[in-house]
Amino acid sequence: MLNDYMGVIYVETSFDNIRALTKIRPLASVPVGGSYRVIDFALSNLVNAGIRNVGIFGGMEDLTSLMDHLGKGAEWDLNRKKDGIFIFEGMLDTSFSGNVKRIKKNMEYFVRSKQKNVIMMSSHMVCNIDIKDVIKKHEESKKEVTAVYKKVENANEKFDNCDCIRIDKKGEVNNIGKNLFFRKEENISMEIFVLSKELLLKFIFEGIQDGSYYTGRDLISRNINKISINPYEFKGYLSCINSTKEYFDFNMDLLNKKTRDDLFNKDGRLIYTKVKDTPPTLYKEGADVRNTLVSNGCILAGKVRNSILARGTVVEKGATVEDCIILQASVIQSGAVLRNIIVDKNNIIKSNERLSASKNYPLVIEKDIKWDKDNYFSFVDELGKYDDD
Amino acid sequence: MRKKEMIAMILAGGQGSRLKELTENVAKPAVSFGGKYKIIDFTLSNCSNSGIDTVGILTQYEPHILNNHIGNGSPWDLDRIDGGVTLLQPHTKKNDEGGWYKGTANAIYQNMRFIEQYDPVNVLILSGDHIYKMDYGKMLRYHVTKGADATIGVFEVPLKEAPSFGIMNVNEDMSIYEFEEKPKNPKSTLASMGIYIFNWQVLKEYLCKDELDKKSENDFGKNIIPDMLADGKKLFAYPFEGYWKDVGTIESFWDAHMDLLKEDNGLNLFEKNWKINTRQYTYPPLYVGENSVIERSLVDKGCEIEGEIKNSVIFPGVKLAAGSKIYDSVVMANTVIDEGVTVERAIVAERVHIKKNAVVGTTGEITVIGEDRTIESPAGKGGDKHVK
Questions:
Q1: Long-range CB contact pairs, A301-310, < 8 A, 24+
Q2: Cβ under 8 Å to A: B residues 282-301
Q3: Helices (H), B247-298
Q4: Which of A6, A146, A321, B140 could be bridged to A53 by S-S, CB 3.0 to 4.6 A?
Q5: What is the dihedral sign for C-alpha A367, A372, A376, A382?
Q6: Mean pLDDT, chain A, whole residue set
Q7: Do A287 and B285 touch (CB under 8 A)?
Q8: Which portions of chain B are predicted below pLDDT 70?
Q9: Given pLDDT bands bounded at 50, 70 and 90, which one contains residue A286?
Q10: What is d(CA B302, CA A34) in angstroms, rounded to the nearest whole number?
Q11: Helices (H) and strands (E) in chain A, counts
Q12: Contact with chain A for residue B35, Cβ under 8 A
């Protein structure tokens, strides 16, 4: 069944507080939960609502990792002849607002698409939301825009720097502000908006003409007094991944069954991702794994507690991994001890390492590509061993 | 179509009745294996990894699950413009010819038009129900180097097992001078693996002659090979050294899973240069609970494990409650095991529900639970079990 909506996902430029993980990839393709990337949630939310035309708009960072992850969109059923998945770079940057040719080229995507309405989302607001219901409520409201929010009671601890929604007595959104950790209770904007394509294009072109074109959410807040906005309350799990700590906390939240159920298979809505041909995980003699999320293709023989292990992790006998996030194809050698560490892809943690950090300040061991200065060709051999970027 | 050097034909129509409940609703090549695969995935992945881009799959018994699994062949890079995978069902032709396959050779005979459209130099005949990794490209180079009319994959089996196999008796240069089906007193331990490379022009001739022979069983091993030998054709044995298992019985099926758990096992699912591809399904990661114990086991994604697992292979989406144990077993996808259960030396098929305090196995023999069963305490009530 077709609907008259297209999806737009904004891939935010990197936040300052998560640079260790986003030096080599956009935030949208940072691995989470052992088996996923950040963007998988936004993309799955859209396709679960029957949306078959998705545009992904990035900033100036290198989107190679993201494009590799998405491919043609087959895993989300977006490898289509009609519509499908489209990626645009350099769209969200003030320095390009004057580049009319580039903007015009990207705007062709909107003009060529047949759908009349748009759902805009950010990739870093991670949730499993029923977009069909949002559309239904949007159409019932007869308002020009619907803004999705979540009422939270820990805005003094989480959702730093997120937008907040103010709702007036008539039940409309009358302002969008910033969360600065002052109040416990806030209506956190999930940066999900529903509006007509015509209105969106109007906002974009006006923004360009005024020389103040910014991110997608800014389009709404800059025009807040000119339009009527319907608020939609979301009640499920939400995480805003905009810092290393939030990244760490989100992964650890997944060890909670209620969170996993809310996120991975809410009312039959699955989260799709690119899947590799890796075997089941092997637990060897002496493996001691508890309270841990494990992806495929791992080989586990050591002690693991309260951790997230991505595809192809090796934890050798005699190693200890506690409260950690280990990303793809890393090896924790026998004798190593890790606590509150995020190990990025393709690292080897040697047997004599003792790495410890705190939950509030987790340490990131950055992605490693072995580079032998005496033999450049070993680089080529090393590359062949990696699954992907 | 462009001329092909070699195309593969996979015989995947067998029921596999010796797998009992595992094949009551599904063809043997589509039985689940190895924690996330189907049996046919190993043969298909061998084709893909060997660079074979054209594969015909001959289905017959209960083909629906197998057909859905294969789809357009994209998991094995067989969704091609020229070639790719084709599912070949038995069908009638003019003059009421065709119909159900009468034997392995008849199955190929009935699909000669499929083969002819590719005008292949050679045809590779494969079984869809063995577990192994083989580079068919090496076998083809061997076939060409020997100038063979046919080359047969052989595997050295223990002498005491030789009477169970078709045995190839060979000369020093590996040319075959005799084929014995299940010999009482074997002269050799080279067992046929049921893997053949035939020169297509030669094979075509023999298939047509065989079809006219009313007394023939239309079988490669019993008819085509002996006929070619009798006519003095050049047949060679290609020795295969590696892990190979015909998982045709409950015991061999279970053994093959236990093999996967051995240190340095010959199959090595983790080998990066020879991946086993399969159709993927969407599951979240595996969760290992606060009080879990998992040792010497393979466990796939989507599982939620709160109990104890040892020496077992666990497929996606299995739920194991606290206080329950799985030992020496194979537990297939989406099975739910409630509190206080013991599963021992068992093969449990898909979507079984084993209720609180039930006991499965512990008889010393291998217990089989068919798919979609519910098992109450004590074992056997409300469902069934097969105890050899």
A1: A302/A332, A302/A334, A306/A252, A306/A255, A308/A33, A308/A34, A308/A251, A308/A252, A308/A254, A308/A255, A308/B285, A309/A34, A310/A31, A310/A34, A310/A35, A310/A345
A2: 282, 284-301
A3: 250-260
A4: A6
A5: negative
A6: 88
A7: no
A8: 1, 378-388
A9: very high
A10: 12
A11: 10, 30
A12: yes
Q: Which DSSP symbol is given to B129?
A: S
- Angstrom distance (rounded) from CA B103 to CA B106: 5
For residue A223, what pLDDT band results from cuts at 50, 70 and 90?
confident
Contacts of B285 in chain A (CB under 8 A): 33-35, 293-295, 308
3-state secondary structure of A86: strand
Task: Establish whether the linkage from the previous residue to A279 is cis, with ω within 30° of 0.
Answer: no
- Identity at B24, one-letter amino acid code: E
The total number of residues shown for chain A amounts to 389
3-class state of residue A150 by DSSP:
strand
The predicted complex's ipTM stands at 0.91
Q: Cα angle at A211 between A149 and A162, to 5 degrees?
A: 20
Q: Which of A296, A300, A346 to mutate to test the interface with B (most CBs of B within 10 A)?
A: A296
DSSP codes, B13-39: ----GGGGGGGSSS-GGGSEETTTEET
Q: Write down the pLDDT at residue A180.
A: 86
User: Residue A61 — pLDDT band, cuts 50, 70, 90?
Assistant: confident
Which tens digits make up the pLDDT trace of A161-189? Answer: 899 999 999 999 998 888 888 889 999 99
How far B48 CA lies from chain A's nearest CA (Å)? Answer: 13
Q: Is B258 on the interface with A (CB under 8 A)?
A: no
Kindly identify which residue of chain A lies nearest to residue B264, measuring between CA atoms.
Answer: A284
Cβ-contact B110, B98 below 8 angstroms: yes
Q: Check whether A55 has a pLDDT greater than 70.
A: yes
Rounded CA gap, A335 and A349, in Å? 10
- Which is nearest to B200 in space by CA: B89, B112, B83, B139? B112
d(CA B147, CA B151): 10
Q: Residue B183's Cα: distance from chain center in Å?
A: 24
- Contacts of A124 by beta carbon, 8 Å cutoff, 6+ apart: A12, A27, A28, A38, A240, A241, A242
Radius of gyration of chain B (CA): 22
Is 90 exceeded by the pLDDT of residue A339?
yes
Q: Spell out the alpha helix ranges (H) of chain B.
A: 40-49, 64-70, 104-109, 112-116, 136-146, 200-212, 225-230, 250-260
- For chain A, the distance separating the N- and C-terminal CA atoms, rounded to the nearest angstrom, is 36
What is the pLDDT, as a whole number, of residue B364?
Answer: 78
Give residue for tokens 């995935």: B41
Token pair of B128, please? 């869809």
Strands A239-240, A186-196: pairing is: unpaired
Q: Is B101 helix (H, G, I), strand (E, B) or coil?
A: coil
